[in-house]
Amino acid sequence: MSQDPYDDLDPARSRRRRSIITFAIVLLMLFFAAWYALSYIRADGAQTGRTGSSTTQSSPSTCGISPKQVEVNVYNATDRDGLAGRVATQLTARGFAVKTVANDPKKVKIDGAGVLRYGSGGRNEAKLVGLHTGKLEMLQDARKRTTVDVVLGPTFKKLVPEADVQPC
């Protein structure tokens, strides 16, 4: 009577087999985890390279940014009802992503046509919005995001005609 080599009656052999299988599964999991992480690193590097190349080929002002990439909040700092809504509709028609339309939440007295508020990372976005809104005062604040606040003042008349907007 021959002994079956796959007989699990020997506890030492069973433990050894389970250990080898467990070790192989852990190695496979580590391999796939490393491969997955590497795919993210490569994708991030490719994305960084793409954005870096577009900015180096453009002029230092606002080139390389399209209106659809700019998030805008439009605030009314005047007594004219509906001013922010009308300007927001026009900016949306030009491709800007308008997020908020309201009265100025800071309630600061604005003299002149208005103010463009932006954060340290949104200077180029504010310049692009400024090409469409006209000569509004540019005011950098402490925000980190690139959203631009268009605060309309009492002497604001209208947006720059789309045909007159100078490309950067």
Q: How would you describe this structure to a colleague?
A:
The structure is a single chain. A five-stranded mixed β-sheet has the order 2-1-5-3-4, with helices on one face. The N and C termini lie far apart (91 Å). 41% of the residues lie in helices and 16% in strands. By secondary structure, the protein is an alpha/beta fold. Helix 3 links the parallel strand 3 and strand 4. It is rod-shaped and about 100 Å long. The chain has two domains: 57 residues; 98 residues, 2-Layer Sandwich (Alpha-Beta Plaits), CATH 3.30.70. Pfam families: LytR_C. This is LytR family transcriptional regulator.
What is the residue-mean pLDDT, rounded to a whole number? 82
Strand coverage percent: 15-25%
By DSSP, the count of extended strands is 5
The order of strands across the largest sheet is 2-1-5-3-4
Domain LytR/CpsA/Psr regulator C-terminal: 69-156
Transmembrane segments: 20-38
Protein name: LytR family transcriptional regulator
Keywords: Membrane, Transmembrane, Transmembrane helix
Write the layout of secondary structure elements.
Layout: H1 11-57, E1 71-76, H2 83-93, E2 97-103, E3 114-118, H3 123-133, E4 137-140, E5 148-152
Parallel strand pairs: 1-2, 1-5, 3-4
Antiparallel strand pairs: 3-5
Can you summarize this structure?
41% of the residues lie in helices and 16% in strands. With 168 residues, it is an alpha/beta fold. It is rod-shaped and about 100 Å long.
